[in-house]
Amino acid sequence: MLTKRIIPCLDVKDNRVVKGVKFRNLRDAGDPVELGAGYSDAGADELVFLDITATIRSRKTIVELVEKVAENVFIPFTVGGGIQTVDQIDALLRSGAEKVSVNTAAVGNPNLIAEAAQRFGNQCVVLAIDARRSKKHEHKWQVCVKAGSEPTDIDVVDWAVKAEKLGAGEILLTSMDADGTKAGYDNELNKAVTEAVNIPVIASGGAGKLEHLYDAIVLGGADAVLTASITHFGNHTIKQMKEYLASRGIPVNL
Question: I want to staple 20 with a disulfide (CB 3.0 to 4.6 A). Which of 26, 94, 131, 174 is the partner?
């Protein structure tokens, strides 16, 4: 088994980190640069910053934020939210991000994945998928876009497979049903995707206790676990998470 990663996720709105439940009822969690540096010092393997407002107004702001993060954070980090063009990806990578995640724009224009992979390499391109359980079909999930606000008719597993073929190097898979609930990851969803693709899958949405991290890896097949509520509000430290996983036989970087 390859080393598994713990990746705190910082949802950024108006230059503050926020966290909600099922993408709603957001509450303030702190300054993104301070939090990012703290997680870097605490032993996180990577970070993800998502600009959840993703308006034209915030475009310049997020580039400036990435530059500040790069000066203070010494682990790889991914930036996403509202990214629509290869030039925007270029600007973020030049500002210091190691990877850029695309979501809504890639659904509308799948060639964005191919163009970005060709220009910057697969390792720089993360496909973020916001997944919601289908009300029509059992054991199926639909892709949602625009920060989870709009469901599509696209099947999550089919989209993940297509994205890998187009050149995505990693998938950030968020269960909208589990997000912020602290009741555990949707491991049926995670397993469905991890068994269908050969690229790393980051499980996101639902971590509330240490057992949930283990389950996402063992039951869901995840290569990494994204954390937010469980870390932002002092429930568990990165060190506790890694020591727990190591004690249960999961290889981690201690």
Answer: 26
| Encoded tokens for 222 | 């995840």
d(CA 235, CA 102): 30
Tokens linked to 202 = 């980051």
Tell me how far apart the alpha carbons of residues 119 and 112 are, in angstroms, rounded to a whole number.
11
Convert the pLDDT of each residue in 190-229 to its tens digit: 999 999 999 999 999 999 999 999 999 999 999 999 998 7
Examine the residue annotation and report whether 11 is marked as an active-site residue of this protein. Answer: yes
Catalytic-role residue among 11, 179, 215, 223: 11
Tell the CATH topology of 5-247.
TIM Barrel (3.20.20)
Selected catalytic residue, list 14, 31, 41, 130: 130
Name which of 193, 75, 85, 65 is nearest 140 in CA terms. Answer: 193
**Which string of b and e fits 91-121 if b means at least 16 CB within 10 Å?**
bbbebbbbbbbbbbbbbeebebbbbbbeebe
In 3D space, the residue among 123, 52, 46, 61 whose CA is nearest the CA of residue 92 turns out to be 61
41 is catalytic: no
Q: Give strand pairing partners of 51.
A: 12
* Sign of the dihedral through C-alpha 53, 104, 155, 157: negative
pTM (predicted TM-score) = 0.93
